[in-house]
Design a protein that fits this description.
The protein has 236 residues and is of the alpha/beta class. It has seven helices and seven strands. The chain has a seven-stranded mixed sheet, with helices on both faces. Helix 3 links the parallel strand 3 and strand 4. Helix 5 crosses helix 7. The longest helix is centred in the C-terminal third of the chain and has 23 residues. The radius of gyration is 17 Å and the shape is globular.
């Protein structure tokens, strides 16, 4: 059965009326290569994660570039009164972390992709713990979804949200006004994995390619050379 790829007009209008004015007020924007985001069809948007604010700021960016972002959110948020109803109405997908139910979010994402949705993925699974804020080693969910669905993966890097609200902090740093920079890369070439069984080695290699594509865009945004190997919190 086909699922709507956008929320109802009421919820979409409510989100836009709240988010866009706040976004324009809080930050300056340096948005690049938004035309690389396909305007139609199922697509996976894979981004780095720096701050609790960047899901909202990136959603604004994606919306302005013609896509409604379907966000994968922690399942616990869906249980919060009012907030849970709101994010469910905005078409977010719950993720059960650390349980046998985690695969359900990928099944739901796959179904949404078939209906033409833009799935907004953080392959790292959480805000980076890299001391210099480069992307970490990614988890394999985005790669698995891409290889099983055939949907293109668009790497998106951003910089600046961590200045507005550093990870772990609860106080917005409003002044001076921060600049939120975004760079969109070309689709990640995963053709070498086509037809291969989704075994661990294949998924890790495809995930590495996705994370390197995001990192390359971030290096350009920052004007710095990225580390040769991504930070691995499990093996640091």
């Amino acid at each position: 059965m086909s699922r709507p790829t956008r929320p109802s007009r009421f919820w979409e209008t409510l989100a836009v009326v709240i988010v866009k004015p706040l976004s324009w007020l809080l930050i300056k924007k340096d948005w690049r290569k938004g035309e690389r985001i396909p305007r139609t069809g199922g697509v996976i948007i894979a981004a780095n994660h720096l701050s609790w604010t960047d899901p909202v700021l990136l959603s604004h960016f994606l919306y302005n570039n013609g896509r409604w972002p379907v966000i994968l959110a922690k399942s616990v948020l869906f249980k919060v009164p009012l907030l849970g109803h709101a994010i469910r109405s905005l078409r977010a997908i719950p993720v059960e972390r650390g349980s046998n139910e985690a695969a359900r979010s990928l099944h739901e994402s796959s179904a949404r992709l078939k209906d033409g949705a833009a799935i907004f993925f953080y392959p790292e699974g959480t805000c980076t713990r890299d001391p210099d804020l480069w992307p970490m080693v990614g988890k394999t969910g985005a790669a698995r979804l891409a290889l099983e669905s055939g949907a293109p993966v668009i790497p998106v890097a951003h910089w600046g949200a961590q200045e507005l609200l550093p990870y772990g902090d609860k106080r917005l740093r409003l002044f001076p006004r921060k600049t939120f920079r975004v760079m969109v890369g070309p689709p990640v070439d995963l053709s070498s994995y086509a037809g291969k069984p989704p075994e661990a080695e294949v998924l890790r290699a495809a995930t590495h390619d996705i994370m390197m594509a995001i990192t390359a865009q971030l290096a350009e945004l920052r004007g710095q050379k990225a580390p040769e190997a991504p930070y691995d919190p499990a093996g640091r």
